[in-house]
Amino acid sequence: MSAPSELSPEDVQRIRLEVLRREHRDLDEAIAALADSGRGDPLGLRRLKKQKLALKDEIARIEDRLIPDIIA
Q1: What is the CA angle 17-20-23, rounded to 5?
Q2: Which distant-in-sequence residues (6+ apart) come within 8 Å of 38 by Cβ?
Q3: How many angstroms separate the CA atoms of 32 and 29, rounded?
Q4: Which of 21, 27, 44, 47 could form an S-S bond across to 52 if both were Cys, CB 3.0 to 4.6 Å?
Q5: What does the alpha-carbon distance between residue 31 and residue 35 come to, in Å, rounded to a whole number?
Q6: What is the DSSP letter of 64?
Q7: What's the CA gap between 25 and 31, in Å, rounded?
Q8: Is 55 exposed, middle or buried (0-12, 13-18, 19+ CB in 10 A)?
Q9: Is 68 exposed, middle or buried, given 0-12, 13-18 or 19+ CB atoms closer than 10 A?
């Protein structure tokens, strides 16, 4: 059996989705750590939260493309 030399567009999207989920989780942990320590500046925390929200939106867009709508 030979492995395919190229990934399908769907496989690329699934890999991208996992990367974004990991980045989202890492940002969540960073935000929590800064908030708990009390050392994080409010502007920096706001920027991280905004970045996390943008990642969440991108994750939702990719999931919508990968998971077909089922009309019941």
Answers
A1: 155
A2: none
A3: 5
A4: 27
A5: 6
A6: H
A7: 10
A8: buried
A9: exposed
Torsion angle (degrees, nearest 10) of CA 37, 19, 60, 31 = 0
Distance CA 18, CA 23 (A): 9
Specify the pLDDT at position 38: 83
Measured in whole angstroms, the distance separating CA 3 from the mean position of its chain's CA atoms is 28
Span 29-55, pLDDT tens digits: 999 999 898 887 899 999 999 999 999
DSSP annotation of 1 reads -
DSSP characters over 4-54: -SS--HHHHHHHHHHHHHHHHHHHHHHHHHHHHHT-S-HHHHHHHHHHHHH
